[in-house]
Amino acid sequence: MLRACLRGANATARKNYRRIPLTSLQQCRHYTAGESSASKVVVAGLLTVSGGIGGTVLYAKWDHKFRAAVEKNVPYSDWLLGLALGPAAQDPGLPIKKRVELAQPPSMIEKQAKKSAKKEGAEGPVKDSSPAPSQPAQSLEEASAEATHIISAIGEVPSVPAPCDTEAAAVKECNECHEHKEATAVHPAPTEPMKERPVEEVAARLAQQEQEEQDISASVSASLEDSLASSAKATLQAIGAQEAALQAIMQHTDKLKEAMEAEVLPEEKSNQWKDLEAALADRTTALNDARAALSKANESLDSLRSVIDESKGLKISSVRPLVLAAEENLHNMVVDLDKMVMKVQSAESEAKIVSQYSELVNEAKRQFQREVSSLTPEIQANWKGLTGKLSTDDLNALIAHAHRRIDQLNRELAEQKIREKIHIDAALEQQKLEDQKALDNAVNTALQHVKEDARLDQERKLAELREVMEAEMRTQLRRQAAAHTDHVQDVLKVQEHELKAEAEQVLSSKMLEQETRYRQLTQEQLDNFTLDMNTAYARLKGVEEAIDSHVVAEDEARKAHQLWLSVEALSYSLKTAEADVPTVPLENAAQAVRDSCRDNDFALALASALPEKSLQRGVYSEASLRARFNSLRSLARRVALIDESRNSLYQYFLSYLQAALLFEKSQEAPPSQLSSEDLDPFKLLSYASYCLEHGDLELAAKLVNQLRGEARRVVEDWLIEARLTLETRQVVNLLSAYANAVGLGTTQAP
Amino acid sequence: MADEHARKWDRCLADTAVKTVTGLGVGIVFSLIVFKRRAWPLSFGSGLGLGMGYSNCQHDFRSPYLIHGRMVKVSAQCNFHCLSEVCDTRSHHAA
Q: What is the pTM for the complete model shown?
């Protein structure tokens, strides 16, 4: 009963061209069950939704990634979440990255600074050495520049070039090692303002300095010689003068002694006194001369000393031996002069004593004379010649005077003897003092002389040592120079090798180039010739081919024409179908087509694509199919309700009932797209009729193909026939189209 | 195929008629002989005949849609894959 009720409901529903799914029935049940549950449902739904949203918000607050995902995927959720939770927190991972990036640039900057510093340091020595002329030593310079660059890069070389006051020494060294430019290059290299002097400049400077030195030494030696000569002359003069003075003094002293002691005649005495006076005069003049000469000599010696000091101040080594010799000479002269002076002084002192003695004697004589004259005033001085004139009184007075004088003299002698010691002591003291003084003087002079000697010795030794050291240094330098020359030789050899290799490489590459060019040119020529030959040949070929193709084209045209004719015959034979009789079997026509397209695969394939049945039996025409369809339609309508699953006899009864009661349009235009409701058999059949009436067999077949179940079985054979017809017609159409195309293609346009 | 439908109907009706009449006859016989001329064996027999005819008719109409399964016995080697198809003889959906 329930089932019947359901079926009735189905049927009524189908009246409205709907297929109601079974679930709608369940909905009916719900509607009929109770309406109070609706509010419960609504409330439950609202609760669920709000619970879901709240849970999402809480979880988003806790998990930021989830929040981001939600904001990305759900629109307007970011607004809602922002409202509920506030703006999203920043990703903590980002600052770390930024810091890392920031940390990197400083190190990079440092590296760059270092690199630039290195570059500057490299540029400095390179720049310095670049102005140097290209010499064999240049590679050396570069090597040294590299070394210096490394040194400067590692640390600053605080080397300042030697100051100018020691330039002479440095220049002297440079003079001997001007090939070792490294030594000089190292010093000025790190400090850029101090440029390294080029070779010529250095050589020029050195030559200049040498010249100057030579000039100076020449001038110094000349001056020294002059002064030496002059001082020697003066000293000799002085010595001569001193000697003369000495001689004069000695002479004078001797003469004086003689005069004192000798008992000669008065005339001779007066001669003696005259000679003495002459000698005295000589002595004085000689002494004066000697003093003058001494002073001159001293002057000249002083000038010599000053010149020596000056030349010492110049500090040029070549002058030194001269200076030394001059000093020695000076010293000798000074020593001789001193000796002479001492001799003269001793002679003078002796002379002084002798003169003192002579004075004393003269004094005594005068005294005696005075006494005698006082006694005998009339007696004259020369009393020895007056012996006859004197009286006895006078003689007695004289003898008494003489006795008195003898007594006096004896007394004086006794006194003198007593006072002898004291006088001797005093004299000794005096003598000691004088001796001391003389000793001091002598000691001083001797000390000075010794000092001078020692100094001269030292200077000599120093000079010798210097020479020895010079010689040693020269040998060392020579050795260094030898080593340097060896090194330079090695480097030159290496360079030679390198340059040779380079030159050879360049040569070989150039040769290769030339060869390749030559080959290229020949190849080009060949190619051109070949090209010309090819073009000529190709043209010939073209002409031949054109002729051949003409022939071929004509042949093709003939064949195409034949094909077209056969296809036309085939399509004509299709039209021979009559009311309910199929066409003639298409076998012959198809055979004709096949014959006419032996070598044409496409046409052959098409020709063999004709269905077998059409060949054997022929196909039905469209009109017959249309007519048959009308009868089939009613049958299909009748079994419309029968499908694969429901096919009991009761179904059949219902289906018949439906067909009787249901009215549809006999023809309805099918839509461009079928929807599910169009798959109703009745609709399909009306669409199909419409199509058939309008001559669209294909669409009608397609629509009919949509039938299912028993209706489908019923129209199956019609469908097969329709298919066959369609297939055959399609093939024939294709063939004719193809034949037309081929025919058009082969037609020679005038 | 369209004719098949008509032919089926012809067969069906003929068969049903024959069976009904035959049933009726058998009923008559039984009613007369066994059941003391009651009416019920007549209706029973005719009903039986009608039912049989109906059933046959239905079967005939369903026959294109019946799926015939078969049991395929495999060799002892392939014990894992038992290629047994479920035999779905009839699909009793409605009726």
A: 0.36
Query: Mind telling me how many Å the CA of B30 is from chain A's nearest CA?
Result: 30
Structure tokens at A499: 């340059």
Higher per-residue pLDDT: A523 or A680: A523
Taking residue A152's Cβ as centre, other Cβ atoms within 10 Å add up to 20
Q: Is residue B70 part of a domain?
A: no
Q: What is the CA radius of gyration of chain B?
A: 21
What was the ipTM of the complex prediction? 0.71
**Chain A contact set for B1 (CB, 8 A):** 713-718
In this prediction, residues A330-343 reach a mean pLDDT of 83
The answer to the question of residue B86 being in a domain is no
**Which range of residues forms the domain containing residue B48?**
2-62
Best residue of B4, B5, B56, B88 to probe chain A, by most A CBs closer than 10 Å: B5
List, for residues A355-382, the tens digit of each pLDDT value: 787 788 778 878 877 876 776 655 554 5
Let me know if residue B19 belongs to a domain.
yes
| pLDDT score of A474 | 94
Euclidean distance between CA atoms A480 and A477, whole angstroms: 5
Give the separation between CA A208 and CA A224, rounded to whole angstroms: 23
Q: Do B5 and A714 touch (CB under 8 A)?
A: yes
Taking the Cβ of residue B92 and every Cβ of chain A, the question of whether any pair is shorter than 8 Å is answered with no
Three-state DSSP class for residue A448:
helix
Report the Cα A120 to chain-centroid distance in Å.
8
Q: Tell me the chain A residues in contact with residue B54 when contact means C-beta distances shorter than 8 Å.
A: 649
Neighbours of A444 (CB within 10 A): 10
Cβ-in-10-Å burial (0-12, 13-18, 19+) of A248 comes to buried
What residues of chain B lie within 8 A of the CB of A656, using their CB?
none
Here the tokens at position A639 are 């079994």
B1, A713: Cβ pair inside 8 Å? yes
Q: Where are the alpha helices (DSSP H) in A575-617?
A: 587-596, 601-608, 612-616
CA distance A190 to A199: 19
Q: CB distance A647–B93 less than 8 Å? A: no
Cβ–Cβ gap B65/A647 under 8 Å? yes
Of A650, A651, A717, the CB nearest to B1: A717
* B 52-81 → A contacts, CB under 8 A: 54, 57-58, 61-62, 64-65
Chain A residues with beta carbon closer than 8 angstroms to that of B57: 649
Length of chain B counted residue by residue: 95
Count: domains in chain B: 1
Separation in Å, CA A384 to CA A266, A381, A392, A394, A749? 10, 9, 16, 14, 198
Q: How many CB atoms lie within 10 A of CB A191?
A: 16
Q: In chain A, how long is the greatest CA-to-CA distance?
A: 242
* Residue in A648, A631, A642 with CA at minimum distance from that of residue A710: A642
CA–CA dist A54, A75 (Å, integer): 17
Smallest CA–CA distance, residue A631 to chain B, in Å, is: 9
CB–CB of A558/A596 below 8 Å?
no
pLDDT of residue A263: 62
Q: Which residues of A34-69 are buried (b: 16+ CB within 10 A; e: fewer)?
A: eeeeeeeeeeeeeeeeeeeeeebbeebeeeeeebee
Whether B81 is in a domain gets the answer no
Residue-level pLDDT at A506: 97
Pick the closest to residue A615 from A587, A593, A584 (CA basis).
A587
Which residues on B lie below 8 Å from A714 (Cβ)? 1-2, 5
Residues of A with CB under 8 A from a CB of B: 3, 631-632, 635, 639, 642, 644-652, 710, 713-718
Q: What are residue B84's DSSP bridge partners? A: B71
Mutate one of A7, A634, A648 to test the B interface: name it (highest B CB count within 10 A): A648
pLDDT at residue A56 is higher than 60:
yes
